């Protein structure tokens, strides 16, 4: 199935996604406006039969399959996908989402309704299989944390569209030219927090980011996972957010040190102490590279005053330890302390 001039390009990386792709691609096949959509899949050297599953839908969906020779990570694969796309708009997502048939009809209506003199970004809600929220807007904290406060809650029954501090890399609707103008994702992140980094750049550029619960996507998972690889990149990349985006780090250094001490203790309780040490070693090994990132951010005037970012941390960051009263009390005390920074 070939479309000469697609209006929207759906873009996602694939990697060993056999158990997700058939449902994902069937939902795309059933989109109401399939005649104006192309699908760009960038495969990060899958080792299973991912390619065969993708090719089996070639007669039903306009698919542009890009095969990487190695696993380039989420950020670089998405950049490659956007460069290879032909649509006026791009929708960046993951291989494990499910689209409702009217998804793009609704999202394009919202785009033209809320776009005025400035370009906008729309990042619809993402819910787990059980209907609970995975993403519905996010906070960006001045310590580098970025997260969804309503994680695990139910979506509101009433239709909502609101501004947010961050889009999700799993649900991003944006003009292709604007994505390229903003420089796309920084491949240094590999995976996780590349969306936070680009969100901060977009906000600093004066462009709003919207999220909505109508439409929303289904994530083929039942809860938020946190394996060793995810923990490593989430925590390592949080430091990159600080280096690339937050000003006055010397002033924040005492609170950063205190936070690291708390996180080190936290890692013992969640049995990731050795992994946390590995993160510190990684940062030390690449210190020259990260210094250059900091210098470049200063040169390009990309640093933001920490005062304009969120100053409260939510219990959701404690994970399972959030059920313990002692940790919740400590978080309350820590938040009070942060307000004086």
Number of strands: 14
Q: What proportion strand?
A: 15-25%
In terms of structural class, how would the helical and strand content be classed? alpha/beta
Q: Calculate the mean pLDDT score and round it.
A: 92
Shape descriptor: globular
Give me the CATH architecture of the largest domain, please.
Alpha-Beta Complex
From the 3D structure, determine the CATH topology of the largest domain. Spore Coat Polysaccharide Biosynthesis Protein SpsA, Chain A
Rg, Cα atoms, Å? 20 Å
Which runs of at least 5 residues are low in confidence (pLDDT < 50)? none
Q: Write the element-wise H/E pattern from the N-terminal end onward.
A: EHEHEHEEHEEEEEEEHHEEHHHHH
**How many distinct helices?**
11
Overview of this structure, please?
The chain has 341 residues and is α/β, with parallel strands linked by helices. It folds into two domains: 8-219, Spore Coat Polysaccharide Biosynthesis Protein SpsA, Chain A (Alpha-Beta Complex), CATH 3.90.550.10; 228-310, no CATH class. It is built from eleven helices and 14 strands. Helix 6 packs parallel to helix 7, helix 7 crosses helix 10 (287-299) and helix 8 runs antiparallel to helix 9.
């Amino acid at each position: 199935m070939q479309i000469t001039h697609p209006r929207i390009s759906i873009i996602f990386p694939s990697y060993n996604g056999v158990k997700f792709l058939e449902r994902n691609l069937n939902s795309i096949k059933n989109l109401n406006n399939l005649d104006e959509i192309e699908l760009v899949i960038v495969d990060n050297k899958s080792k299973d039969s991912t390619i065969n599953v993708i090719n089996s839908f070639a007669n039903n969906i306009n698919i542009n399959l890009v095969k990487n020779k190695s696993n380039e990570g989420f950020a670089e694969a998405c950049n490659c996908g956007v460069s290879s796309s032909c649509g006026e708009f791009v929708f960046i997502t993951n291989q494990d989402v499910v689209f409702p048939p009217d998804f793009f009809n609704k999202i394009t209506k919202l785009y033209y309704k809320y776009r005025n003199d400035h370009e906008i970004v729309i990042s619809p809600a993402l819910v787990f299989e059980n209907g609970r929220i995975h993403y519905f807007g996010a906070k960006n904290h001045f310590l580098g944390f970025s997260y969804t406060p309503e994680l695990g809650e139910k979506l509101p029954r009433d239709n909502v569209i609101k501004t947010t501090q961050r889009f999700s890399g799993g649900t991003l609707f944006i003009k292709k030219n604007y994505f390229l103008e903003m420089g796309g994702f920084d491949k240094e992140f590999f995976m996780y927090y590349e969306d936070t980094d680009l969100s901060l750049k977009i906000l600093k550029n004066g462009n709003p980011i919207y999220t909505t619960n109508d439409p929303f996507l289904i994530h083929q998972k039942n809860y938020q996972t946190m394996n060793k690889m995810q923990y490593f990149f989430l925590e390592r990349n949080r430091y990159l957010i600080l280096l690339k985006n937050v000003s006055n780090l010397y002033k924040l250094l005492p609170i950063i040190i205190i936070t690291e001490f708390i996180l080190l203790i936290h890692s013992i309780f969640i049995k990731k102490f050795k992994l946390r040490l590995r993160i510190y070693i990684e940062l030390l090994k690449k210190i020259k590279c990260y210094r250059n990132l900091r210098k470049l951010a200063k040169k390009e005037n990309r640093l933001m005053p920490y005062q304009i970012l969120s100053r409260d941390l939510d219990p959701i960051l404690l994970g399972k330890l959030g059920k313990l009263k002692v940790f919740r009390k400590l978080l309350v005390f820590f938040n009070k302390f942060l307000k004086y920074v």
